[in-house]
Specification:
Elements: E1 4-5, H1 8-13, E2 19-26, E3 38-45, E4 52-55, H2 66-73, E5 78-81, H3 84-88, E6 98-100, H4 101-108, H5 121-128, H6 135-138, H7 141-164, H8 170-184, E7 188-190, H9 192-199, E8 209-210, E9 213-214, E10 230-231, E11 234-235, E12 249-250, E13 255-261, H10 264-273, H11 281-286, H12 294-307, H13 317-331, E14 336-337, E15 343-344, H14 354-380, E16 387-391, E17 395-400, H15 407-411, E18 418-423
Parallel strand pairs: 1-4, 2-5, 5-6
Antiparallel strand pairs: 2-3, 3-4, 7-9, 7-12, 8-9, 10-11, 13-17, 13-18, 14-15, 16-17
Helix pairs in contact: 8-14, 10-13, 10-14, 13-14
Length: about 425
């Protein structure tokens, strides 16, 4: 059977087994996945000898209907893909079947799957030399096919390894990727005037802005597993708090609510080290240091956690257990596994120290705790107007509809101490 599938009868005849790899080729891959259109879809049965190109929008082919393609893919048990979150923006109903190869790979051994190395000169020229709104539509189908045949050959062993114990990765596939898709798809409403004032240097706002909203994009494949959140020239995890740029982000409903975990890293480290606080962490520690204040205690705690526990503090129960836990981590010469399979070695860390290793473990544990809690919140809000629109490590931002009076119900799903702040734009949160 020829590799180009452009007619319904060809699609009907195409055999793809219970385990199939898919990759969506957007008409313009610079756009956020929520704003992209599909040009082609590469599919390959993992027991097959070649892949196929399903044509949706390309200058060399007839178009298949997206609904017919979805019907075909929905019959497949396991759909392997490099980026489940991106595919969900196009095919959310496929979530139960989708398996995120890149995310699982990054948890098992941090090694990026670089597909750009297989880019043809033709594709590179279209992207860099010739401006066109839909480059993928003009790049020859044969070049797309050649690229993704090479990509599949590159990741075939990884897919086969994942398929041997697929249930082991349920948390990553069914909680991590869907959570961040559900946050991304909401977008954040913009104040047009403020956005233009503070972000006027963005070369192509259309890549992430549509109908008065901007779309965030979480990179899940980081060294620690803690998602970063930068797209199209804006780092949403590091927005300036003093220059007014946060005023560009406003509610679609009534106001914004920020829920922020208090003393989150010391709390996580205490759990990892087996130490239990009975009340407010900083107040409790202040009792051990006469004359201190919560502010000075907070500074002292972070100095000990990430700078190493000084000798004079090693007799304090909390710091003693943190010191012992950190030393146990550092004495392990093999891979250190966290809950749900993230693996760390000293060799993964640039200029490794015991405190850096501890920090990596904490960042991954923080992410796991957050995914569990915020997935419950997302599920609770699925038929509500109130939505999570931004995630920033130890906090979430809600676009809140006050008529729903949901805040107590939302916070009841959280397992750690928190504070709440409100505002009519992100700069006013207080």
């Amino acid at each position: 059977m020829f590799y180009i599938i452009e007619k319904q009868d060809q699609l009907d005849q195409l055999h793809i087994g219970e385990d199939t790899f898919i990759h969506i080729i957007a008409t313009n891959e610079n756009y956020h996945p929520a704003l992209q259109n599909i040009s082609l879809i590469y599919v390959r049965w993992i027991k097959g000898h070649k892949g196929y190109i399903l044509c949706v929008d390309h200058s060399e082919s007839l178009p298949l209907k997206i609904t017919d393609i979805l019907d075909k893919l929905s019959k497949v048990n396991n759909l392997y893909t490099l980026d489940k979150k991106a595919v969900l923006h196009h095919f959310p109903t496929l979530s139960p079947q989708l398996i995120d190869v890149q995310l699982i790979n990054s948890y098992q051994h941090f090694q990026e799957i670089n597909i750009e190395q297989y880019e043809s000169k033709v594709e590179t020229d279209f992207k860099r030399k010739y401006y066109t709104e839909s480059p993928s539509v003009l790049i020859p189908i044969a070049k797309h096919y050649e690229k993704y045949e090479n990509v599949y050959d590159h990741i075939e062993q990884t897919i086969n390894k994942i398929s041997e114990n697929i249930r082991e990765y349920d948390f990553l596939n069914h909680y991590v990727a869907p959570l961040f898709y559900n946050i991304e798809k909401q977008g954040i409403k913009l104040s047009k005037e403020s956005f233009i004032e503070h972000f006027k240097t963005l070369p192509n706002p259309k890549f992430s802005v549509s109908k008065g909203k901007i779309y965030t994009q979480y990179n899940l494949n980081t060294l620690t597993g803690r998602p970063s959140n930068a797209f199209n020239g804006i780092n949403f995890a590091a927005l300036n708090k003093t220059n007014g740029e946060r005023a560009a982000f406003i509610p679609e409903n009534d106001f914004l609510v920020e829920i922020d975990f208090k003393a989150y890293h010391p709390t996580i480290i205490a759990k990892l080290a087996g130490y239990e606080f009975t009340g407010n962490i900083y107040d409790q520690l202040a009792n051990e240091f006469p004359g201190s204040t919560p502010e000075t205690i907070k500074e002292l705690v972070f100095q000990q956690l990430y700078g190493g526990v000084r000798k004079e503090f090693q007799d304090k129960p909390f710091f003693s257990q943190v010191n012992d836990y950190t030393n146990r981590l550092w004495s392990n010469d093999g891979a250190i596994g966290t809950q749900f399979g993230k693996r760390f070695t000293k060799q993964m860390i640039e200029n490794p120290t015991p405190q850096k290793l501890l920090n990596y473990i904490v960042q991954n544990t923080e992410t796991i705790f957050n995914v569990v809690q915020f997935s419950a919140v997302i599920d609770f809000l699925k038929d509500k107007k109130t939505k999570i629109i931004l995630y920033t490590y130890d906090s979430i931002l809600l676009d809140y509809d006050s008529s729903e009076t949901l805040l107590n119900s939302i916070t009841s799903l959280l397992k750690f101490n928190y504070s709440t702040k409100t505002g009519h734009n992100y700069a006013e949160i207080k």
